[in-house]
Design brief:
Oligomer: single chain
CATH class: Alpha Beta
Distance between the termini: 20 Å
CATH architecture: 2-Layer Sandwich
Strand order of the largest sheet: 3-2-1-4-5
Number of helices: 4
Amino acid sequence: MRYLAIDYGSRRTGLAICDLSETIVSPLAVVDSRKGLFEKIINIIKTENVEAVVVGLPLNMDDSEGPQAQLTEKFAERLKKELQIPVYLQDERLSSFAAEEKLAPAQYTRGKKKKRLDAIAAAEILEVFLQQKKTDNQTRQ
């Protein structure tokens, strides 16, 4: 199944995608959240033959929901209403930290890092989601 991961932010939103075998996850893009975000996502879903969406949920370290988590849940609910495919929420704690660690060896300027970071964080979210799915399937067998 082909998944699109979304690291939703009020300014920038990172997108990542996996292949049909769910083994290769790739950062896809960072888009401006303030300008036609839903249309861009719908277009990607159509052109990339996406079958489900995974939205990163930014929970606090104590499992509570802050304001950004509540905004993200509203965003995911809107996606569910507008799309004809499943939309999943995935805990995204530490995804940005992991993305920054992956970018560190490249020694990008701060501006270049910002342009890539959200897409890499979305890839981290999708990798965790797919690993949990794989683990759950193995546990059931």
